Amino acid sequence: MKVCDSALVKIGTCAxxxxxxxxxxxxxxxxxxxxxxxxDGICEVESVAIIAGNARSTYLPGQxxxxxTRMGIDLSIAYLSAKVLDxxxxxxxxxxxxxxxxxCSFTYEEACSVLRKAGTSWQxxxxxxxxLGESAVFRGPENRPIIHQKxxxxxxxxxxxxxxxxxASAYEGADFVCDLNLPVPESLVGSQDVVxxxxxxxxxxxxxDAFxxxxxxLAVGGLVIHLNPADHVGHGFYCFSAGxxxxxxxxxxxxxxxxxxxxxxxxxxxNKHFLEFAPDKVxxxxxxxxxxxxxxxxxxxxxxxxxxxxxxxxRKVWADGAASSVPPRGAWLRRFALWGAFASLTLGAxxxxxxxxxxGRRVQISD
Length: 367
What we know:
By secondary structure, the chain is an alpha/beta fold. It has a domain at 66-300: Rossmann fold (3-Layer(aba) Sandwich). Helices cover 25% and strands 23% of the residues. Helix 2 crosses helix 3. The model is unreliable at 1-69 (pLDDT under 50).
């Protein structure tokens, strides 16, 4: 996907009347097209100005317009995050660190709508103070004025100056550049009240070190939120299960605040609704109809030395004794017969997915 094939591209006013009435305009001047063999969808820009009312986002000479990155917060994640973060008191004094700069896929008006739907506390932002995001993928061909992560967290009650990003590269303008495969700098240890992982840990090869770093970053009383794939094949290094978060954090001085499997449909419909599953209600994938993610939140209640846990499933078996792991006589035969009958009545994996989908709680966030 190329941004442009010529040296100059002008993108006119947005087709949306609501946005056009605010004078939304985007101009992009490209000094050269995408480099063959380079990063797809990136071109050097001379200047980019986005104007929505009094809000403005401008690229300076030498910067690059990000058009391919899709890590970020959509309306479903915004809804869930608002629910989890709402009980935090004195948000204005809390420090928020996102793992990677989180692009928001929605406009300010859409954020207001979904936060009303969530029923949580939030605040409006004067147009002159609104910061816009820079992801051309989320802006889309209509060049929608999507908001910056700082504005989103400000809507939830945090202070923009306290919302920062950590990344392994300075490419997206992270405040802190460090590799989560390695220990974070001592200056960051215990420095954060909220760590927000909107889809980063699955891209870190050394998962153990990444979790250890999240633990180290949080102050006592701090909250971590994870949203990572459970069956999104071909996306990152790993897909996770809900038990991973529970086993790690409960062994390391944390308490559980929220733990669910979240099933998203197509990119268009995921801003309309999602399915929410209790971890013990998920027995298999809901693919190809939905993509399954783990969303979890844990609060750090005390500082303890790092514990590398054994899987809780096996700890329970070992604690209950070997006899508890042996099925009763005839159980395997009954299971085989049941599965054989069930498989013959369904039409393969798709039918199994439909059965699993019925166990989820549908949450409608917009019409």
